[in-house]
């Protein structure tokens, strides 16, 4: 039997291939086999050697996703055969990416692994919208939270989340935005709290700016769907000053700066 190789869990970043780290790009070129998610941009997969085996374990476009245990078993099997294995995940592997579960499985199988962090979509969505997630006196704390709990996990207590941090960055929340909005309002956030939804951050970067109260209606009106990030908090309003990409109308927002 070959000597087992290492598995590299690599963050592919939010979508724009230029937001990949140099380390990720280097390791992709060394892969014999590449397991990738639906959210990893195909242009990033092109960095791998043409003869590298590509295994799509994602679930977009009506296809069924590969069950988590099967992905883990395939990675372990490939590493045991001595192949250089890359597991490419959208954003950062350890932010809502099940990277932790995969490391647990690798560890249990005695396979060495290395994590290459990626730019998580929540940070990228905010940066491309001109929203600084922290800003002195406006946002001293940021919470990354999921809108979609794992089966069997306790539901997110949105009333409590309202008081936990100045700025909330919500992953997988676009389909449950009404429930999230209602919980945050019940928890004491003002209906006029600035809110932002970003679909396909750094690629189409489709942005909807709203208030917390109106966010579900604005998302529905604009047809935003997954993958999308919600950002809620006073700091969102700063995009009026700091936005650096042309909006749909080509003009930057005109609101007064803080
Ligand atoms: N590990 C990833 C998150 C995976 S969970 C990361 O660090 O970004 C999947 C969720 O991430 C999606 O439902 C969406 O909320 C968010 N997401 C991932 N890529 C995105 C993108 N390009 N634009 C907007 N949201 C994105």
Automatic annotation (TrEMBL):
Keywords: Cobalamin biosynthesis, Methyltransferase, Porphyrin biosynthesis, S-adenosyl-L-methionine, Transferase. InterPro entries: 4pyrrol_Mease (IPR000878), 4pyrrol_Methylase_sf (IPR035996), 4pyrrole_Mease_sub1 (IPR014777), 4pyrrole_Mease_sub2 (IPR014776), CobA/CysG_C (IPR006366), Siro_Cobalamin_biosynth (IPR050161), Uropor_MeTrfase_CS (IPR003043). One of its GO terms (biological process) is cobalamin biosynthetic process. GO terms for molecular function: uroporphyrin-III C-methyltransferase activity. Its EC number is 2.1.1.107. SUPFAM superfamilies: Tetrapyrrole methylase (SSF53790). Signal peptide: none annotated. It comes from the Bacteria. Residues 6-215 form the Tetrapyrrole methylase domain. It is an enzyme of class 2 (transferase). Pathway: Cofactor biosynthesis; adenosylcobalamin biosynthesis; precorrin-2 from uroporphyrinogen III: step 1/1; Porphyrin-containing compound metabolism; siroheme biosynthesis; precorrin-2 from uroporphyrinogen III: step 1/1. Belongs to the precorrin methyltransferase family. This is uroporphyrinogen-III C-methyltransferase. It comes from Acidithiobacillus sulfuriphilus. The gene is cobA.
